[in-house]
Amino acid sequence: MRQAGRYLKEYRAIRQKVGFLELCKDTDLAAEVSLQPLRIVGVDAVIFFSDILIPVEAMGIGVELTDKGPELPNPIRSQAGIDRLRVPDPASTVPFVGSILKKLRSELVDQVPLIGFAGAPWTLASYMIEGGGSRSFGEIKGMAFREPGTLHNLLNKIADTIGAYLLFQIESGAQVIQLFDTWAGDLTRSDYEEFALPYTQKIFEAVGTRVPRILYVNGAANILESMARSGADVLSIDWRIPIAEARRRVGGKLALQGNLDPCLLLGDRERLLRNAEDILRQAGPAGHIMNLGHGILPPTPVENARAFIDFVKGYKHQP
Question: What is the secondary structure of 182-251 as a DSSP string?
Answer without folding.
Answer: GGGGGS-HHHHHHHTHHHHHHHHHHHTTSS-EEEEETT-GGGHHHHTTSS-SEEEE-TTS-HHHHHHHH-
